[in-house]
Amino acid sequence: MGAQLRVYRQKIKSAQTTKKITRAMELISASRIYKAQQRVAAATPYDRAVTRAVSAVATYSNVKHPLTTEPERIDRAAVVIFTSDRGLAGAFSSSVLKEADALTSLLRSQGKEVVYFLVGRKAVSNFGFRRRKFEQQWIGGTDLPQVDTAKAIADAVLASFNTEASEGGVDEIHLVFNRFVSMIAQVPEVIRLLPLEVVPGMQTPADDEVFPLYEFEPDVTKVLDALLPVYIESRIFNAMLQSAASEHAARQKAMKSATDNADKLIKNYTRLSNSARQAEITQQISEIVGGADALSTAGDED
Amino acid sequence: MSANTLRIELVAEDAAVWSGEAKMVIAKTVEGEIGLLPGHEPMLAILASGEVRITLPTGEIIKANAEDGFLSVEHNVVTVVARHAALI
């Protein structure tokens, strides 16, 4: 076998091995998207119930609570970035990080200092590489979010929120994550978690409308105190679930195109190796014919 | 929904546990046990961990454990939201 042919055979083999891996990853992701979507669906009733309750309190009582009132001056804002632990998911992590960068420059232009909370190994390594500081990190398990992690994140951001700005606390909390739109579309999204702003799913009553008299047990402040951390946690958990579903979808898409590319490579190299083999055979034939010719001419002269 | 039944939704953090129509709900809040009948005024209460008892229109009783959550009542819709909840 000629040298050229051997090189092509080698490349075909390597592309085939890669294809096997990407194909397997594609199939794994495809099966996990379904589960991730189911988890999003399963957590939705809780999220909706909590949101409704929060908006009920916000709409039907005029109590002032630190979590709902906008501070006069916002000096520092926290940004929670949800990325994945592993790569090979196309632009999944980088699009979130890009969105976070855009948010950062927006906040900076408003004169706010930005502190980061990172979820996922990709965000941590990105920040490490660029030597940027961050407050806290949570790594591992981004593809299968757990309630406990959501609680840990919620506790950390709330603790930071409840600290005075002069002591290093924050006045505002933003989440940046990939929203799962469909199998082919995942959109990076920014939501402001605190202070609460728009509470979706509840139309504000008209001025002349009489509020239904809400009874709070034990009292409004206590209910809000108990409710808001739950709301925060549920929003964070929701962001994690959305992000996980998006991660699987993005990985499936990336691995599908990798498999397709491997197919294309294999096809091209097969063509090349065929023509190399053919050229070799042609050369050998012409060598033989040439050799025989030379021999017969030499025999004639004798 | 008829005016003399309650619509109950019992949800935990990671799944909806139970939902349906009922005649009466008894739940345990931090202030003590509370019984809810159709037509109850809107209310939001913090749950103490304990049992939620749901009486169905047929008279059958469904029991569930709920902890760490709250309960809201609005237009005959009772939502029991708990971090951990399970039917017994």
Report what the structure shows.
- Chain A is an alpha/beta fold.
- Chain A has one domain (24-199, 213-255): Pyruvate Kinase, Chain: A, domain 1.
- Chain A has five helices and six strands, in the order αβαβαβαβββα.
- Chain A has a five-stranded mixed β-sheet with strand order 3-2-1-4-5, sandwiched between helices.
- Chain A is elongated.
- Chain A starts with a helix and ends with a helix.
- Chain B has one domain (6-87): ATP Synthase, domain 1.
- Chain B has strands at residues 6-12, 15-22, 24-29, 32-36, 43-46, 50-55, 61-74, 77-87.
- In chain B, strands 1, 2, 3, 4, 5, 6, 7 and 8 form an eight-stranded mixed β-sheet that branches.
- In chain B, strand 1 (6-12) and strand 2 (15-22) form a beta hairpin.
- Chain B is globular.
- The relative contact order of chain B is 0.30.
- The chains are: A alpha/beta (302), B mainly beta (88).
- At the A-B interface, helix 1, strand 6 and helix 5 of A face strand 1, strand 5, strand 7 and strand 8 of B.
- Strand 6 of chain A pairs parallel with strand 5 of chain B, so a sheet runs across the interface.
Brief synopsis:
The complex is a heterodimer of chains A (302) and B (88). Chain A has 302 residues and is of the alpha/beta class.
